[in-house]
Amino acid sequence: MLRLLWAASVRTRYFLRRYMPTNILLDRIRTRRGLKWGLPAMLLAAPYLLAANICTNLIADGGPGWLNLLVILFIWNALKFILNGPVSLTHLIRAHVHEASERRRVRRRSDAMKSARYATIGS
Question: Which of 77, 93, 84 is nearest to 41 (CA)?
Answer without folding.
Answer: 84
